[in-house]
């Protein structure tokens, strides 16, 4: 599943294609959304923004389309009227201007909401602050690490909990813990003040670096749709590098399977 930086990059590309231009056509696979097909024609998409791993498409008449790609969904951009991937994937949403179309394939979690009521959405209401929200500070994250809801949990589990910080995911978890120099089994409650500050800073710095450098380098099992398109892409320090030397100390990077999710770390640097 793509993580926060890849979803925000996808949102940026979608917004560049259609935001601010009136819709010439709208189509939905889901019967409950069919009634919006005519009413959206002539309306304008005002913004496309992620919150955690959900994507919100805002229209100028007070409605917003909520979508979550889950494991298989993907947004594509095409010329108006074109339908790439039609044979390989099932089209769920098509929003077209006179020139461009944004197309959602294979997703099942899609709904239209009043924009003002989005905070009540069952998924969105459970999310913590987004790691890519520019207003979120390291001090606020450090305070969150001391919250009784989170302080007693192992970091290996906590950093995947979207209620703690939205947009975190598996590769970010490994990279954040390595950057902070903290072992995955530890709990926030057991960290020293300097360790907690390092972790809070890494929880913001690592996702933001990935976003700034336009996605991630290729790793096993990751979809091409979310990979970097520049040579300067975010490079993994430990994730997917089992058996390779640690870039910091030269010891061997190890892999652990924890809750069916793979985690990579350096026992020496994070011991």
What does this structure look like?
This protein is of the alpha+beta class. The chain has 7 helices and 10 strands. The protein folds into 2 domains: about 5-120, N-terminal domain of MutM-like DNA repair proteins (Alpha-Beta Barrel), CATH 3.20.190.10; about 140-265, Orthogonal Bundle (Helicase, Ruva Protein, domain 3), CATH 1.10.8.50. It has helices at about 5-20, 35-40, 140-145, 150, 155-160, 170-180, 195-210; strands spanning about 25-30, 45-50, 55-60, 65-70, 75-80, 90-95, 100-105, 110-115, 255-260, 260-265. Strands 1-6-7-5 form a 4-stranded antiparallel beta sheet.
List keywords for this structure.
alpha+beta, about 270 residues, 7 helices
Task: Produce a short descriptive summary.
The protein is of the alpha+beta class and 271 residues long. It contains 7 helices and 10 strands. Helix content is 24%, strand content 22%.
Question: What sequence of helices (H) and strands (E) makes up the elements?
Answer: HEHEEEEEEEHHHHHEE
CATH topology of the largest domain: Helicase, Ruva Protein, domain 3
Q: Could you list the spans in which at least 5 consecutive residues all have pLDDT below 50?
A: 217-231
What is the radius of gyration computed over CA atoms, rounded to a whole number of angstroms? 20 Å
Shape: elongated
Question: What is the CATH architecture descriptor of the largest domain?
Answer: Orthogonal Bundle
Identify the strand order in the major beta sheet.
Answer: 1-6-7-5
> Class by helix and strand content?
alpha+beta
Domain count: the total is 2
What is the arithmetic mean of pLDDT? Answer: 91
Q: Helical percent range?
A: 10-25%
CATH class of the largest domain: Mainly Alpha
Q: How many helical stretches?
A: 7
Largest sheet properties? 4 strands, antiparallel
């Amino acid at each position: 599943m793509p993580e926060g930086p890849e979803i925000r990059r996808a949102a940026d590309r979608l917004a560049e294609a259609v935001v601010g231009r009136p819709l010439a056509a709208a189509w939905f696979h889901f019967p409950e959304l069919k009634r919006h097909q005519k009413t959206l024609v002539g309306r304008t998409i005002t913004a496309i923004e992620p919150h955690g791993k959900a994507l919100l498409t805002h229209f100028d008449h007070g409605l917003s389309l909520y979508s979550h790609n889950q494991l298989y969904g993907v947004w594509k951009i095409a010329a108006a009227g074109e339908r790439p991937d039609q044979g390989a994937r099932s089209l769920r949403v098509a929003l077209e201007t006179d020139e461009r179309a944004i197309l959602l394939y294979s997703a099942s979690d899609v709904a239209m909401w009043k924009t003002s009521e989005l905070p009540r959405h069952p998924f969105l209401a459970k999310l913590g602050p987004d790691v890519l929200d520019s207003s979120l500070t390291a001090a606020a994250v450090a305070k969150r690490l001391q919250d009784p809801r989170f302080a007693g949990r192992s970091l290996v589990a906590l950093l995947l909990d979207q209620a703690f910080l939205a947009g975190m995911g598996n590769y970010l978890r490994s990279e954040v813990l390595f950057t902070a120099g903290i072992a995955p089994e530890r709990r926030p409650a057991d960290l020293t003040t300097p360790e907690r500050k390092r972790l809070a800073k890494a929880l913001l710095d690592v996702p933001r670096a990935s976003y700034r450098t336009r996605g991630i380098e290729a790793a096993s099992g990751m979809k091409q749709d979310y990979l970097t398109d520049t040579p300067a892409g975010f490079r993994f320090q430990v994730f997917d590098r089992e058996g390779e030397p640690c870039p910091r100390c030269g010891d061997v990077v190890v892999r652990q399977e924890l809750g069916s999710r793979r985690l990579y770390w350096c026992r020496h640097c994070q011991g």
